[in-house]
Request: fold
Amino acid sequence: MTRIATANAYSAVLDNLMAAQQRQIDAGSQVSSQKKATDLKGYAASAETLAALQSVQSSVTGYLDQSDVLSNKLSTQDLALNQMADSANGASQAIKDALASGSGDTVMQALQGFFQNAVGALNTKFDGRYVFAGGQVNTQPVTATSLSNLTSAPSIASLFKNDQYVTTNQLDESTTIQSGFLADKLGTNLFNAFKAIEAYDQGPNGPFTGQLTQAQTTFLQSQIASFDTEGTNLTNVAGQNGLMQNQVDSANKDLTSRQTMLTQLVGKITDVDVAKAASDLQQAQFSVQAAAQVFASLKSSSLLNLLPSG
Reply:
């Protein structure tokens, strides 16, 4: 009668073979991925904790990505702000040199160069966008190209095309900084200083060529303070930008530490013991082989094999 139960034996051995194959597949997946499971269902009671950790981890990663971009933008702003400060200080020195030599032959040429440097700084781009344009990131914030534009334009204000939106960035869940500067706020006073000299050069007491007259000398002496003041102001703005760079660097270090901690916490839930997984895979392979051998043996011991043929 036991031979008549061969079908039941087949079913039991086949179930064991399939279960062994599934264990082999699961163990192989763990060895190759080094993860315990491929979805939250595989983590049972830890699934809710894992989902929460991964959500925080994703948020921290987003802040880290933003801080990297912001850090690069602030570095670009630092170069531009220092370039503007150098333009103001350079203009002051050009006037002092003209006064020292008593000649005005090169002063306007020098001032033209420093003015263009200032305009270039205000029209600085980062990632294809103008950094001092406020919200008008695709519009060049300064349209002037030469000193003559300062006196021909209706007003200095008309030369600036930025709006008044100041860029803000969120460093983490609780910290937000205003990281942007506006072209008109940075350049108006400096442009007025350049305009005063350009207007004088084009006026009845100009141009500044050859030996400086007493009136020209007195005028140029009175303009030095304006450029010196703007050089100091722009250096201070560059310093503010530097403080923001330090703040972003500090936030980046904190976020990196948090990211490392979160990765470790997630790993404790998801990562497999590679040695144990390899051992489980080997045992699963042995189980498959054993089940397959039993299945083959059972097939050869079937009652049908004992019945006479014909």
Observations:
- The mean pLDDT is 84.
